[in-house]
Amino acid sequence: MRRIFFTLCFNFFLVLAFAQVQTGKASFYADKFDGVSTASGEKYRHNKLTGAHKTLPFGTKVRVTNLANNQSVEVIINDRGPWVEGRIIDVSRSAAEQLGFINKGLAEVKLEVIDPGNGKTSDLGRPIDNVMVEEKEFYSFEIERLTPKGYGVQIGTYQELVNLMRLTENLKNSYKKKVTVQVKVLNGVKYYGLILGNFNSRAKAEQFRADILPKFPDAFIAEYNRK
């Protein structure tokens, strides 16, 4: 296993104000997909309020509004897609029913991010294919390679770097802690561990972990210089 640590310091902006509000067409899952695993590892269930988006982190909560009838529903992103040009989200059948477009099949919708979630998949290392980035989506950041010491709190492991970048900015603003990324190479595949804080004692790291457990229940202590 190869380990590399670096800090991502983002002056973070989106030219199209992406990930806040989008408009476009929505579709919904066919019944044949019920029980099939999604890109996050969760199984699709038609009676749950979930959705597929090309780039938003898994766990993101979005409000979808049908512009034809002004009906809205909140869904959790747990899948990738849709892969049809012009469509911005696939929603579960129950979400489509609440939006009132089951008979039409498609709807012109507005999508608003209301909770960025934590971006985690439900399993480590599941490859995500065909992830698309919106055209003209720009980032500015600096990278400093480190050999850190002490302790941090790892909140998750990710494979999609673009989602890691978005989540990092949210975490820096929310917790005012240094964000460190550990790059792990397992079986030739890169994974990114997202670690908050740089504490000189395990006790301080444990205290911070306790504070964030309601939001990140799988968070654990990471010892930077552990062999």
What does this structure look like?
By secondary structure, this protein is mainly β. A hairpin with a 2-residue loop joins strand 10 (179-186) and strand 11. The protein is built from three helices and twelve strands, in the order ββββββαβββαββαβ. The strands form two sheets. A six-stranded antiparallel beta sheet has the order 8-1-10-11-9-12. It has a six-stranded mixed barrel with strand order 2-6-3-5-4-7.
Strand order of the largest sheet: 8-1-10-11-9-12
Morphology call = elongated
- Mean pLDDT value: 77
Strand content: 35-45%
Low-confidence stretches: 1-19, 119-135
Number of separate strands: 12
The percent range for helix content is 10-25%
Largest sheet: 6 strands, antiparallel
Cα-to-Cα separation, first versus last residue: 11 Å
- Provide the succession of SSEs: EEEEEEHEEEHEEHE
Radius of gyration: 19 Å
Question: What attributes does this structure have?
Answer:
single chain, 227 residues, mainly beta, six-stranded antiparallel β-sheet, six-stranded mixed β-barrel, 3 helices, disordered N terminus, peptidoglycan binding, signal
